[in-house]
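For reproducibility, we list the full input for the zinc ion complex.
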Amino acid sequence: MADYRSSSVHNHSNLCDGKSSLGDMAYASWQAGVQTLGFSGHSHTPCDLEYCMSPGRTAQYKAEIARLKKQYAGKMDILCGLEWDEFSDTEPSWYDYWIGSVHYIQGPKTGKYYEIDWRPQDLLECLQEEFEGNGLAMAKHYFDHVAQVAAKQPTILGHFDLIKKLNCTGSFFDEESAEYKEVALDALRRAFEDCKVLEINTGGAYRGYRNDFYPALFLLEEWKKLGGQVVITGDAHDTKSILWGFEEAAAYAKQAGFTHSVILTAKGFEEAEL
Ligand SMILES: [Zn+2]
Ligand SMILES: [Zn+2]
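The corresponding predicted structure, in tokenized form, follows.
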């Protein structure tokens, strides 16, 4: 079986909100022994142009990855993927693969878009303006939309419980409550009907937002019971995090009962021993 550290497919560059160029990310991956590198730039998302790729940058992204594919031919496979946001106007089927993600809540009252994973102030405004301070209702809204993204059958379902990113002190909702868990589990079961590969994403921990990974253990255990598969990703925004936390994530997957994960390669998914 393959090595789960031989493939890394959730990676950003400075063409969206990453810090490093595509070329630097490729070189660092090759040096780290990666055999399949997947780029997953943020898809153009008109509701908020802060961190996604503009149409011009999307063209640059495709061209530069095509060039890197040739440069690394025979040394490392490079995939041109996309992290597709629910509110994106980009067609994801053009890409080698795509990660389906929810980064915004569109307020059910005002229609306004709130970024959920960046400024605590934005999430607080969403909570107060749209959900009358009811954090559980806000979480339910988020998870329902994740299930809707899963229904579009992405290659990988991205950071399932990203809504917890800014909640490490529990100020928005209680992650340990039975109600919260049921809301998340219900969406996970619906998601499984359409998408079988969930990522274990170490990015929130690397960047210091969380002490844990996405998804929480109770969700990962349920995913195992359902018969789902997991892929370990770093959600890397710099060259240091391409494989960051992969060993801990493997141990975490084992804790949830998994004996193997899957890795994405140029030929599709392959099993990897944990
Ligand atoms: Zn994301
Ligand atoms: Zn990402």
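Residues 83-273 form a domain with the TIM Barrel fold (CATH 3.20.20.140). The first strand starts at residue 2 and ends at 3. Both points were considered when choosing residues for closer inspection.
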